[in-house]
Amino acid sequence: MGAGAALPVGVVVALVPAFLLSRIVRVAAQWERAVILRFGRFHGLKGPGLLVVFPVADYARFVDTRLLTLDIPHQQVITRDNVPVQVDGVIFFLVQDPQRAVVTVQDYRHAISQYAQASLRDVIGSMTLDELLSERDQIQARIAQVVEERSRAWGIHVDSIRLLDINMPEDLKRMMSRQASAEREKRATITKAEGDREAAVNLAAAATTMAQSPGAMQLRTLQSIDGLGSSPSNTVLLAVPVEVLELAKALTARKEPPGT
């Protein structure tokens, strides 16, 4: 009975020092920095590697200094030309000053997320729909600049902000689709008209050349006949002008002796 009761006591005695040691000796990864608060005041930064945190006196807040991402949820925004759109995105940032990120703001992740959402609504609300669709890079840079100006005081650097999706009302999408289709048909008609005009100019130039050189017309005729091939199924009909027939008849009558 006594030996059975002593076993749990021994386990507890062994676990208590191990637990205290785990609370005193901490390990910070290569990308982490520990903000140490001693008796509630900022004491210093530690890490990476092993660090000692004194119980009761010290409090350690670990901060990830790698490039971090936060989703910007769908935001309902009305553009300057009164078109309702839904926009979402993602923000890329990193903590450059862990001390300010912990001391000056309660939750820097939540704070930068909320500020990015508000900045996105403000910037997009000052633009028209056409500007939103055609100037995405400029909009992203402008939102990032606005957020960076505020988050710099929190020890945070905004790397970039990307707009992922822009949703518009379905009737507006159909209208834009019809407009794009009409624009494509317009460009196709203009292209065809320009092609017809160039073809007409080339044909006129060819006709002028052939009119100035009768041999060119005959050569072209022979080329066309040759292009038909030698297949028995091809029948070539040569139309002789009436003037040529009359000229041949006149020459024949002139050569015949009188009284024939």
UniProtKB/TrEMBL annotation:
The alphabetical list of record keywords is: Hydrolase, Protease
Q: Under the cellular component aspect of Gene Ontology, which terms does the record hold?
A: plasma membrane; side of membrane
Q: Which GO terms describe its molecular function?
A: peptidase activity
Q: Where does this polypeptide localize?
A: Membrane
Top-level taxon of origin: Bacteria
Any one of the GO BP annotations: proteolysis
**Domain annotation Band: ranges:** 23-180
The annotated topology with respect to the bilayer is:
Single-pass membrane protein
Return the InterPro entries for the record: Band-7_stomatin-like, Band_7, Band_7/SPFH_dom_sf, Stomatin_HflK_fam
| Pfam families xrefs | Band_7 (PF01145)
Write down the SUPFAM superfamilies for this protein, in alphabetical order. Band 7/SPFH domain
Instruction: State the PANTHER family in the record.
Output: AT06885P-RELATED (PTHR10264:SF19), BAND 7 PROTEIN-RELATED (PTHR10264)
> What family name appears in the similarity comment?
Belongs to the band 7/mec-2 family.
UniProt-recorded name of the protein: Membrane protease subunit, stomatin/prohibitin
Q: Which organism is it from?
A: Cystobacter ferrugineus
Q: What is the lineage of its organism?
A: Bacteria, Pseudomonadati, Myxococcota, Myxococcia, Myxococcales
